[in-house]
Amino acid sequence: MVTKPRLYSGMQPSADSLQIGNYIGALMQWRDLQQTYDAFFSVVDLHALTQPNDPAELRAKTRRTAAQYIAAGIEPSRSTLYVQSHVRAHAELAWILSTLTGFGEAGRMTQFKDKSQRYGAEATSVGLFTYPVLMAADILLYQTDIVPVGDDQKQHVELTRTLAERFNARYGETFHVPMPVIQQDTARIYDLQNPTSKMSKSAESDAGVLWLLDDPKVSAKKIMRAVTDSEGSVRYDRENKPGVSNLLVIYAALTGRQIPAIEDEYAGRGYGDFKKGLAEVVVAEFGPVRERALELLDDPAELDRVLATNAARADAVADRTLADVYDKMGLLRRV
Ligand code: AQP
User: Fold this and answer.
1) Where are the beta strands (DSSP E) in 205-278?
2) How many Cα atoms are found within 13 Å in the side-chain-facing hemisphere of 334?
3) Which of 9, 56, 81, 148 has the smallest CB count inside 10 Å?
4) Is there a single domain that holds both residue 240 and residue 319?
C-alpha cells in the first residue's frame, strides 16, 4: 500500500459561524487536498482559550465549527476531523516543546507582539505567548509533511521546523520536519466595508463580514452595500480599487472563473449589476453549505459521535509519537 503524505491544518472556534475568507482561504483548499493527502483537520479549541471565552459559547462554537467543516465538504470518513482538546497528547507535547524553546525565540513571534499590544499587558496571558509552541505540537504529533497556512502563520511553521530539527539533533531522529504551504495572496479576502483589512471572524463590525451561516438575504444585502469607488467600472486594481478587486476575487474563487473573463462580462455595466451577480453566486454556494451545517447541528449526539471516532483515530497516531518522545528524552516508562 502506498501511504499518502500527511497534512495538518486547523481553525479556531472563535465565532458562531465561519466567514467567507475561512471558506475560500482554507476550506475550499482543504476539500481538494484531502483527496491526495492523509489529512488531519482540527478544531483548535485549546488555542481559542488564549482569549476570554464563555464556557457554554465555546462548546457551541466548537460544534458549529466542526459542522461547517463537514458541510463545506471535509469528509470525516476520509480525513481525520477532530477537536484538539479531545486528543490529550497536544497539551503534553506542547509542554515538552516549551522546554526546548528559547524565551527570546518565542518573544520574536510577530503575531504575539501584535496581539499582546492590542490586548494590553493585563489581558495578555502566558498561553498567548506559548501559542506557537502548542501549534508546533499540533503539527509534529502527526509527523506532518505539509501545513497549509496563511502568510501570518508562516513564522510559526518556521519555529515548528526549528524545534523538530533541534529535538532530532539532540535526541535522535523523531520528528518529520514539515513544510509550510503558503496560501496565495489571491486567496486573501478583505472586509466588505473596509477592503484594506483582512476579513476576520473577530471583526468589530458585522456589516463587512460574509458569514457562512448568514441568511441568504442578509448575505445579498451585505454584498449590495459593499464599499466600492466612484469610477463605476468593474476592473481589478488592488491598489486603487480595493473594494471592487475584493469582490472580483470572491467571484472568481467561487466560480472557478478567471478575473478578466468576469471583467469582460460586466464591462459597461454598473456596480449594481455586478453586485447582484455576485450575490447570486454567493447565495448559490453558501445555501447548501448552510442547510447541511444546520442539519448536522440539529443532531448534536451524532456529530459528537463522529468527532469521537475521529479523535480516536488521531489519538492512535499522536500517542505513538508522544511515547517515542518521552522515551527518547528519558522519562521513565510506567509499567
Ligand atoms: N480573510 C481571509 N482570507 C483568506 N483566508 C483567511 N483565513 C482567515 N481569514 C481569511 C484562513 O482561515 C483559516 C482560519 O484560521 P484561524 O481560525 O486559526 O484564524 P485566523 O486566520 O485568524 O482567522 P480569522 O477568521 O481572522 O479568525 P480570528 O478572528 O479568530 O483571528 C486560516 O487558514 C486562515 O489563513
Assistant:
1) none
2) 1
3) 56
4) no
Do residues 244 and 173 share a domain? no
Note the pLDDT tens digit of each residue in 23-39: 999 999 999 999 999 99
* 153 C-alpha to ligand 1 centroid (Å): 10
Summarised one tens digit per residue, pLDDT across range 81-137 is 999 999 999 999 999 999 999 999 999 999 898 888 888 888 899 999 999 999 999
Q: Are 250 and 310 contained in the same domain? A: no
Which residue from 7, 8, 9, 11 has its CB within 8 A of the most atoms of ligand 1, so it is best to mutate?
11
CA distances from 324 to 136, 178, 318 (A): 17, 18, 10
Residue closest by Cα to atom 7 of ligand 1: 22
Task: Print the domain residue range for 242.
Answer: 206-294
Q: Compute the distance from residue 328 Cα to the ligand 1 centre, in Å.
A: 36
Query: What domain count does the chain have?
Result: 2
Give the orientation angle of helix 271-297 with respect to helix 242-255, to 10 degrees: 50
Residue 215: give its domain's CATH number.
Answer: 1.10.240.10
* pTM, entire model: 0.94
Q: Which long-range contacts (CB under 8 A, 24 or more apart) does 200-203 make?
A: 200/19, 200/21, 201/12, 201/14, 201/15, 201/18, 201/19, 201/22, 202/14, 202/15
Considering the domain boundaries, does residue 189 fall inside one?
Answer: no
Cα 22 to averaged position of ligand 1 atoms, centre (Å): 5
